[in-house]
Amino acid sequence: MAGVCGGIAEYFAVDVTAMRVLWVLLSIFPGFVICGIFAYAAAWFIMPEATVVPVAAPPSPPPAPAADPTPAASGE
């Protein structure tokens, strides 16, 4: 919802889906539900926004040289 699991997964270099599943499983256990909700809300406010770095398109290849319109001399 707020990208908390994605941010944590990126920080620890793990799969985002695995982090989300772990968060849901820990939130299901009694006692962790309320703590899980508060921890998510706290992380939502504490974690900094992700910085987006624009990716430039790769440079286009140089144009092919133009073909010579005059035929080559046969050497005769």
Protein model, in words:
Helix 1 (about 5-10) packs across helix 2 and helix 2 crosses helix 3 (about 30-45). The longest helix is centred in the middle third of the chain and has 15 residues, at about 30-45. With about 80 residues, the protein is mostly helical. It has a domain at about 5-45. The chain has helices spanning about 5-10, 15-30, 30-45. The mean pLDDT is about 75.
The SSE string, one letter per element, is HHH
> Judging from the principal axes of the Cα atoms, what is the shape?
rod-shaped
Q: What is the alpha-carbon Rg in Å?
A: 28 Å
Number of helices: 3
Roughly how many Å apart are the termini?
79 Å
Give helix % range: 40-55%
| Total number of beta strands | 0
Unreliable stretches = none
Rounded mean pLDDT is 74
Strand content: under 5%
**Structural class assignment:** mainly alpha
What about the largest sheet? Answer: none
